[in-house]
Write a structure and sequence with these properties.
Helices cover 27% and strands 23% of the residues. It is an alpha+beta fold.
Length: 183
């Protein structure tokens, strides 16, 4: 069974967000830290479930280039890409298998819907904390006008257009067990 599936959403839907340089977005920004020393992937998954688990049906995931997420698909010497799992890190191989199983085309740029959050987060977060991927895809809720990404430091960056009741509830849940840094 596929872990993810394509959505019809090709363009990133949050017009106030600058997805090339997040800090130029016209919204507000918070960073939420787990301060996990070990098992960062598991801590980041718990952070996701704590903040967004009840609302996971409202979250989609966007990437400009899904197949280029992991660095070991790119041969820097001749500027070519190899998307076969052979010779890749275990994290990259699992990620590429997930894309293949879902039928994601190699040139796909756009959103996906997650069908199994536990499996998806396990794969993506292992890529991030192992440095196989320098960044995560963008997780977003169009209805709530927010997006976030995972970082290898054991944190998420949360951007939102304005502070709504929904955003306040997320931040209140985060404040109970995580450090929030405002920018």
């Amino acid at each position: 069974m596929a872990i993810i599936k394509l959505t019809p959403q090709r363009d990133f839907p949050l017009t106030w967000a600058n997805i090339e340089y997040y800090t130029d977005s016209k919204g507000l920004r918070k960073e939420i830290y787990t301060h996990a020393e070990d098992s960062k992937a598991e801590e980041l998954a718990m952070l996701y479930h704590t903040l967004f688990g009840l609302f996971k049906d409202r979250i989609n995931v966007y990437a400009y280039s899904w197949w280029d997420l992991c660095m070991d698909t790119w041969n820097t010497e001749d500027d070519t890409y190899d998307y076969s799992p052979e010779g890749k890190s275990p994290e990259t191989a699992a990620y590429l298998k997930m894309l293949t199983d879902a039928g994601i085309p190699p040139d796909y740029s756009g959103s996906i819907e997650c069908l199994n959050w536990d499996e998806f987060l396990s794969i993506i977060l292992r890529c991030i904390v192992s440095y196989a991927a320098p960044y995560s895809p963008i997780f977003y809720s169009e209805a709530d006008q927010l997006f976030f990404y995972f970082h290898h430091t054991g944190s998420i960056g949360l951007y939102y257009e304005k502070e709504t009741t929904f955003v306040r509830e997320i931040l209140e849940r985060a404040a109970k067990q995580y450090e929030i840094v405002s920018y």
